[in-house]
Specification:
single chain; alpha/beta; 2 domains; 9 helices; 6 strands
Amino acid sequence: MSAKVYVFDAYGTLFDVHSAVARSRDAIGPAADRLSELWRVKQLEYSWTRSLMGHYADFWALTEQALDYAIAATGGAIEPSTRAALLDAYRTLDAYPEVAATLTRLRAAGAGTAILSNGSEAMLASAVDAAGLAGSFDAVLSVHAAGIFKTAPRAYELVGARFGAQPHEVSFQSSNRWDIAGAKAFGFRAVWINRSGAPDEYADLAPDDVLADLSGLR
């Protein structure tokens, strides 16, 4: 393998963040896709804002706040039971179809595997269990231990502290281009999982590889 440790972002990389809304599409109605996009955008915006102001809050709290904004911005006509269902679904998001096989292949080759996510420890534990991935990781790392969200270097430092690995020994995979930029700046080998075919950005912090999904990871 080309790295000692393969580290994965969770949301959007291993788990489909839009699968929560997909499960309640009929109850939400025509605004479902817009609501899902806004939920994700605000969730991330809140994490960056709080990191910059030095006012950390648990990612689950930000997830709830982002959902409430998305509901209000798309008309606010969602039943409380649907809101509860959306939050329950976010704890058990669908894993992308190639995830399990990719992790099995990497571990069989002797590589370490881990998650490094903005998600809280409880959120990540629930998602991993629901996807049937328990036992697929040597570590599930939440930035909660650092008290700041990615792309702060302190968040990426959690990997070296856990594995005793230098940054160049780590392959970091994320579907989020901003996360890839942060990982590259930190010194990781950075692999952008560009599932949506998005245009590139952060030209000065280019990924080491770009893949359509995790199945091509080496």
